[in-house]
Amino acid sequence: MSFKDIPEARQCIRLYALGKKIKLTVVKSDRSKLRFTCSEGACPFVCHISGDAHTPGVRIKTLNDNHTCWPTFDNHVVDYSIIAQYFKKKLQENLKFKIKEMRAGLHNAFKLKASQGKCKRAKRIILETLEGGFTDGYNKLEAYAIELKESNSGSDIVINLSKEALAQGKRKFLRRNLHL
Ligand SMILES: [Zn+2]
């Protein structure tokens, strides 16, 4: 398995460890190498990731996922910021990517059960911080409307824009009608 770079690998391993309930200890972490073990001393779990000079990206070089110790924590520690990092690119490419799909994605890839609330919060963070993905505030607003529609399924959301502002080349947000 390969990753774009060390930060991407680190993020993926963190999610993987959360799914397997492994409390990671970072043994080595620099620009080209990552090495994790399980915090429970005698456990054989080890994951080593590194790159080489000939090919781009980094790869898992060693993975012993024979995690023998008792789970030390529960899935609740997966926080929304890790989820946000993981889905940032996906949402940038597709604003309609749903919370439901985020949850299914985490479950399929890492056997992680992330709550609706956590995924929702993660999605909001992504939408708030996306740069370059939105050309102006209107697109951002549209993304919020999609999100709102999703979390209040069955409701209609109408975004009213000021005609006057549109004539001046601006899109001014007037109000949002939410019919529940
Ligand atoms: Zn372990």
What does this structure look like?
Strand 3 and strand 4 form a beta hairpin. The protein has six helices and seven strands. With 180 residues, the chain is of the alpha+beta class. The model is unreliable at 175-180 (pLDDT under 50). It has three domains: 2-64, no CATH class; 74-133; 136-180, no CATH class. The strands form two sheets. Strands 1-5-4-3-2 form a five-stranded antiparallel β-sheet, covered by helices on one side. The structure holds zinc ion (ZN). Zinc ion (ZN) binds at residues 22, 38, 40, 43, 45, 67, 69.
Proportion of residues in helical segments: 40-55%
Number of helices: 6
Query: What is the N-to-C succession of helices and strands?
Result: EHEEEEHHHHEHE
Mean pLDDT: 76
Distance between the termini: 46 Å
The largest beta-sheet arranges its strands as: 1-5-4-3-2
What about the largest sheet? 5 strands, antiparallel
- Whole-angstrom Rg: 21 Å
Structural class: alpha+beta
- Provide the list of bound ligands, each named once: zinc ion
Q: Tell me, what's the shape? A: globular
Which stretches are poorly predicted, pLDDT < 50 over at least 5 residues? 175-180
**Strand residues, percent:** 15-25%
User: Into how many domains do the coordinates divide?
Assistant: 3
Number-wise, the strands total: 7
Pfam families: DBD_Tnp_Mut
Protein name: Transposase MuDR plant domain-containing protein
InterPro entries: Transposase_MuDR
